[in-house]
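I am writing to request your help with a piece of structural work I have in hand. The matter concerns a single protein, recorded as an amino acid sequence and a row of backbone structure tokens. Could you please explain, in whatever detail you think fit, how the structure tokens follow from the sequence? Thank you for your consideration; the sequence and its tokens are set out here:
>
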Amino acid sequence: EEMPFPKGKVRIDIAFVEGLPIKKEEIKILKKIRKESKILVALGNCASLGGIPEMKNYQGKERTIRYIYKKLNVENPEIKEIDNFVKVDFYIPGCPINGEEFLKYARELLQGKIPKIPQKPVCSECIHQGKETCFLRKKEPCLGPITLAGCKAICPKNFQICYGCRGILKNINPKGFLETLKKFKKPEEIEDNLEIFGIKDDIEKILKS
């Protein structure tokens, strides 16, 4: 099967990589993109954090693959973010990404700058902040306090808790926040929420450090 990538030497100013590689051929393509690109950007939650596919790692990949594909013989590697295979220069988070944010950072990248994402929590953009309608006040396991803002808190705005699709803030220790959640939710329920968009392993690394 021919790789969907130009043959020979190619020069790319900025490569936006969405999703993550599963097959060996896809890893090969990713490495070629990296080699030919000045700047490589991980675009979205799957490329940056493993996303929903990474749930397979937490749930038991053998059981998961049998449940989905039944008796089909398919490759079943561990799900890994693209920075496990190549150097990533910048991450644009979210599932889905925010269009305005993408255009803002794309302009900076085209100018040769690596943007800096403000380290603010989703709560800073939330219409429920400080109100009785705040999910945490209602004892719902919203991850807004530890999740990177920039999405305009679209999930809470539409009366859904934040599941952390943009990844966790830098330089925070989530231990205290998780202890608070445990006061009104079972540990397994909290873990389920952390697994949905792939932030569980990032939190575990912080707690172990």
Q: What stands out?
A: Residues 122-208 form one domain.
